[in-house]
Amino acid sequence: MGVHPTYLALLPLTLSACAPDYALTGRQPDVDPADVTDCGFTQVVDDDGNATNFWAYDCNPVFTTTGEDWAPTIDNSAFLVTEVLGHPFYQLWYTGVEDSSNPDGWKLGYAVSAEGTDWVSSGDNPLLSSVDGDWDASSMDAMQVVWDPDTSQYVMIYQGLNYDENNLAIGVLSSPDGVAWDRLPQNPVYDLMQPAAGLDGWCWPLGLDLGPVAGYTGYLAGYDARANTCSAYQLNASDLTSWSPSSTSVFPAGDAGAWDDMGQVSLSTASLDGSDYLFYVGFGDWETQGQYQVSQHQFLGMAEKSSGGQWVRRPNKIPINNTSEGSIGAVAARTVGSRVHLWVNDEWDGQTGVGYFIYDPLDTMAQDAP
Question: Which domains does the chain show, CATH number per domain?
Answer without folding.
Answer: 2-368 (2.115.10.20)
